[in-house]
Amino acid sequence: MKKHPSWHLIVGILAFLIALIASVSLAHFFVTTILDKLGRPVSDYTRMIITSLLGSFLFCLIPLAIGQAIRPRQIDYINSLIEAFRRIAKGDFSVSIDLAKGRPDGQFAELTESINQMTSELGEMEKTRQEFVSNVSHEIQSPLTSIGGFARALQDDNLDPQERLQYLQIIEAESRRVSKISDNLLKLTMLESERHPFERKSYRLDRQLTNLILVCEPQWMAKGIQMEAELEKVTFTADEDLMSQVWTNLLQNSIKFTPEGGKITVRLRKKTAEIECQICDSGIGIKEEDLPHIFERFYKVDKSRNPTNSGSGLGLSLVKKIIELHKGTVKVQSGDNRGTQFIVILPDEADAHLHKV
After folding, report:
1. Looking at the domain that runs over 203-356, which CATH code has it been given?
2. Domain 121-192 adopts which CATH fold?
3. Residue ranges per domain, the chain?
4. What pLDDT score does 171 carry?
5. pLDDT number for residue 183
6. Do 184 and 314 touch, CB atoms closer than 8 A?
7. Mean pLDDT of the residues in the chain
8. pTM of the predicted model, to two decimals?
9. What average pLDDT does the segment 125-154 reach?
């Protein structure tokens, strides 16, 4: 198969021809002008020799002149790259190389764009890291401060026994809170790094939901919540332990934000090539401006960060990550004082395979 010449070769040939024509034309113009002014007759052969020599000189001079004009721009471009790498090495990710500087083309233009994209992404990662560290520090510092304060109060010998018991219960609750934050962070890290053992097996999803609803019974019974379950018989292939964390988090979330005498409904149904689970409550709901953020780490609808009515802000992040690992999706429908509905859609791999066949 005959290969076509690359555009680099074509441009090079055109540049060569242009430089040659320009050199000969300038030489002819100079020789003609000078000889005419001298007024001396010169043979055509002598005129041709002089023109050829001058043309050869100009042909060599033109590329040098162009090179000297271009060279400073190239040096500026290279220096800008070196300076950019120095700043990146020091942790400054606000670097952006000006594409107009040196006017890089071809692979150099791609390199410049890649560097700018890399610094932009590194800047976003650094911003996320700083927010993450700030949130972790806040979430851990709050219960630790509480534990320290009540531990000092317990050193008072004149403390009433009832107060002493109350302080001990608060310390125990705050200790559990710190432990839960640490546990959820560890789980999220392991899931994102794909180091968590992922053990799929077939099991009855309806039975799993039934058991978890019963496990949470003391919590919803204590608030007088009416619990309804509409569960179709569904066999699902997944990591049972991880999916248990999903349903537990969603159920506890609904119980926590549903007032006394409210209602929670759990529905499980099998559709074509997918399984859908809905957990609906008649709770306080979620404001529209909060909905896009509820699956973000440490995001709390309760801006007061009141530990009595809000968790660590990691539960829903964990839910989303586990569902995504199972190739599913989770979404939420809610409104202020209109209750909340979490909808989990999971692929029914066996059913999907049958339909493909």
Report:
1. 3.30.565.10
2. Helix Hairpins (1.10.287)
3. 7-104, 121-192, 203-356
4. 87
5. 75
6. yes
7. 76
8. 0.57
9. 75
Q: In the chain, which ranges are continuous DSSP H helix?
A: 7-38, 44-89, 107-153, 161-192, 205-215, 217-222, 240-257, 315-325, 349-356
Give the DSSP letter string of 176-241: HHHHHHHHHHHHHHHHHTT-S----EEEEHHHHHHHHHHHTHHHHHHTT-EEEEEE---EEEE-HH
Cα 331–335–337 angle (5° rounding)?
135
pLDDT tens-digit profile of 79-115? 777 777 777 777 777 777 766 555 555 556 777 777 7
- For 252-266, how does the pLDDT look when each residue is reduced to its tens digit (9 = 90+)? 889 988 999 999 999
What the block records as the tokens of 140 is 């851990």
Nearest to 95 by CA among 103, 107, 104, 86: 86
Report the C-alpha gap between 239 and 207 in whole angstroms: 15
Q: Is 205 exposed, middle or buried, given 0-12, 13-18 or 19+ CB atoms closer than 10 A? A: buried
Helix axes 315-325, 161-192, angle to 10 degrees: 30
Q: Which two tokens stand for residue 90?
A: 């020091």
Spatial separation of the C-alpha atoms in residues 177 and 171, rounded to whole Å: 10
